Predict the structure.
Amino acid sequence: MDYTLNIHGRLMELRKPVVMGILNATPDSFFEGSRLRTEAEIARRANQIVAEGGSIIDVGAYSTRPGAVKVSLDEEMERMRHALTVVRREQPDAVLSVDTFRPEVARMAVEEYGVGIINDVSGGNADGSFGGTTQLQRSGEDEVPEIFHEVARLQVPYILMSSDATLRSMLLFFSFRVQQLRALGQKDIIIDPGFGFGKSVEQNFSLMGDLEKLQVMGLPILVGVSRKSMIWKTLELTPNEALNGTTMLNTIALQKGAGILRVHDVREAAEVIKLSEALAMSSSRKQNAND
């Protein structure tokens, strides 16, 4: 998709897909290898993401895995400030996003650390329901979420995730929420189908099979399947053993229109993009030669 994100006046082209590297400043993320607490661990990870070809560093301070302990606003804020201070010191020019559903955290991250993207996996739910019944029932959905007002005021790109289990309900959700965001003046919106949130393994695969149909929204698509249960449950493995499956699904996601891959393993995802681009260029040259 020929789409450009405006990040504080800096333009990011998505004509070629980009990699978003995950940096979790949490003690309980589902993938053990992504749990970072110390300054040295955070610094090492930030530098690794950039060195391996990541275009965006996505910082999270609140685990959204099933069964995770809820974190207070104060604790999330403290963790986030700690992580962003280190990341900004190590990579002052990097494009940063923050994984949060709280407008207070979003505001702090943008105003104090120049964060350029807000990644909200709650889909606008003020109580942070990540794929739970509150999200699926969408109680009170006619109310405009507070975080929508905040990102529109901050004028940074916003990642809108859906926990809906079917393509039809997801498209309805995206259409409604995007309309709300546009009414507030929000310009850049990225949609995330929310693999692993509110969906069974079978529903996740069904959604992957129909992923290209989300292009009807005319918005960039972010795919985050990295080491998720749809992979390791199907292969009867653990998250630590799910890299090969992640690479396979990332390849399919690119073929179906993904513009951003959110991953733990940055180098491997960057290689998938490079090979996919080489294949696309070869096919284009052949087509031009035949015309």
Summary: Confidence is low (pLDDT under 50) at residues 132-139. The beta strands are 4-7, 10-13, 18-24, 56-60, 95-99, 117-120, 158-161, 189-192, 222-223, 260-263. The radius of gyration is 18 Å.
